[in-house]
Each structure stands twice: as C-alpha cells, then as structure tokens.
Amino acid sequence: MSGEKQPSLVSRINDILATRITMWVGTIWAFYAFALFGLTPVFWPNYEEQILYWSNFLQLVFLPIITVGTALMSRGTLEQQAEGHEIVKKEFALMQETHDQLMEALKQVDAGMKELLRRGGESALSPSPEPPAKKPA
After folding, report:
1. What number of other Cβ atoms are within 10 A of residue 26's Cβ?
2. 20 to 30 A Cα–Cα from 59, which one of 22, 37, 46, 99?
3. What pLDDT sits at residue 79?
C-alpha cells in the first residue's frame, strides 16, 4: 500500500458524509419525512411557495450527494468482484492442472491395456485355471 496515495482529510470527510447521507436518504424513515414535508402545503397552504423552494433545494443538494455516495459504496463491491474473479481464475487453473493430470493417467492406462492385449490377447484377461483337486488319502 506504500505506492497508493492516501486521501486527504477533506476527501475522507467528504466520503464519509456522502456515504452516510446516501444511507440515510435510502431509509424508510427518510421516505416518511419527505412524504410529510411534501404534504405540508395541504395543511398550511400559505407556505406552499417556501415548501416548493425548499423541496427543489433538497433535490438539487441530494442528487450529487446520492450519486457520490452510491459510487463510493459500489467501490467496495467492485473490489470484492475483482478479488472473487482472481480466486475463480486460480481455482480454474488448479482444475485445469488436475484435468491434465487425469488425462495423462488415462492415456497411460490406455497404453497399458493395449500392451496387455497385444502380449497375451484375450487369454491374459481370462481368469486363471482352477487348481487340481486333491486326491483322498
């Protein structure tokens, strides 16, 4: 990690804020808060202009924060995917090596069987004859 540049304090604070705000805005409690906020002109029609202003302001502020927070949270997922991909590649290489060894062993068995058949024909594979019966004493 010595080659990687450490993020500045401001960058770390920005990342923490973006992530936490994104996580908070993505909760059901945030939905309830925004739903109540959106319904306030129904109860207080005199404040409709202020509510619309603040509603637009919140949308403009939350859009980039949520975008940055989502990107930051997906960074960990991308790193996990890269690690998983490396593990799969290593496992595949091991499986390929095992497959190659198995194929070589099968070739040797095949060659041995062909040699056995060449030397003795079918008689080499037949069971050995029964030993002679003992004579009664």
Report:
1. 13
2. 46
3. 82
CB 73 within 8 A of CB 19: yes
pLDDT digits (tens, 9 = 90+) for 67-102: 898 888 888 787 888 888 899 999 999 999 999 999
Q: Report how far residue 24's alpha carbon sits from residue 34's, in angstroms, rounded to the nearest whole number.
A: 12
Assess if residue 39 is contained within a domain: yes
Amino acid at 125: L
pLDDT for 3 beyond 90: no
Q: How far is CA 50 from CA 95, 98, 126, in A?
A: 66, 71, 100
Give the list of residues 6+ apart from residue 48 with CB closer than 8 angstroms, or none.
Answer: 41
Torsions phi, psi for 103 (to 5 deg):
-65, -40
Which residue range is the domain that position 116 belongs to? 9-120
Q: How many domains does the chain fold into?
A: 1
pLDDT score of 98: 94
pLDDT value of position 135? 66
With both helix axes pointing from N to C terminus, report the angle between 9-25 and 48-120 in degrees, rounded to the nearest 10. 100
115 lies in a domain?
yes
Establish if 109 belongs to a structural domain: yes
